[in-house]
Design goal:
- This protein is α/β, with parallel strands linked by helices.
- The protein has a single domain, classed as Spore Coat Polysaccharide Biosynthesis Protein SpsA, Chain A, CATH 3.90.550.
- The chain contains seven helices and ten strands.
- 37% of the residues are buried.
- GO terms for molecular function: GTP binding; metal ion binding; molybdenum cofactor guanylyltransferase activity.
Length: 211
């Protein structure tokens, strides 16, 4: 992977470009059952596609990624610090594919079954396939068609960085998903204690709403 002339049916994207300020250290390398959070996302994607790209924050230590022979990039310089849209656009700009399937690095209960279900909703007119969990849409665990690339760029240049504002501008298919645990993301040490240390999951589970 990495040859811009090649076109893949599907590329996986793991977003690990955040600063993890609330967690106090890079969330990607926190562990559940001895396995790094980021590895849960990578392994779920590898059940769908052999091509996975990790988008990293400049301060992340890349030794772990190199040791695991993972492809990784930083956001394009022009858009660094502009959030998830910048990460998705940066991968689309460097790795050509028909579809891109996106995961964050901090959802250690994610599973390939969920991703396979999203794939079932692909069609020629759809530009994004986004889960909805009890009315909360989850655009960072979703699929995006290559046609949205220039629309993302427009939003970045206009500093319209919210996924909430982006999704209505494209043809989005929302898919109701009932697997609450898969969407749990760990943002703080308190959440780590609740969900990882004490394994206190659904029905107490919570997950991020669209930003």
């Amino acid at each position: 992977m990495g040859d811009e002339s090649s076109v893949n049916k599907m590329i996986g994207i793991v977003l690990a470009g955040g600063q993890s300020k609330r967690f106090g250290q890079p969330k990607a390398f926190a562990k559940r059952n001895g396995k790094e959070f980021i590895l849960y996302s990578i392994e779920a994607l590898q059940c769908i596609t052999k091509d996975v790209v990790v988008v990293i924050h400049p301060e992340i230590d890349t030794k772990w990624l190199q040791r695991n022979q993972l492809t990784y990039i930083q956001d394009l310089e022009l858009y660094q610090g502009k959030g998830p849209l910048a990460g998705i656009y940066s991968v689309m700009s460097q790795f050509k594919s028909e579809w891109y399937i996106v995961l964050p690095c901090d959802t250690p209960f994610i599973n390939a079954h969920l991703l396979k279900k999203l794939q079932l909703y692909r069609n020629d007119g759809c530009e994004a396939i986004v889960p909805s969990v009890h009315g909360n849409i989850q655009p960072l665990i979703a699929m995006y068609h290559h046609r949205v690339k220039e629309k993302i760029r427009w939003h970045l240049e206009q500093n319209k960085l919210s996924m909430k504002h982006f999704l209505p501008s494209i043809h989005t298919r929302y898919v109701e998903i009932n697997d609450d645990d898969a969407f749990i993301n760990i943002n703080t040490k308190d959440e780590y204690d609740q969900y990882i240390v004490h394994n206190n999951l659904f029905p107490q589970a919570s997950f991020s709403k669209t930003k």
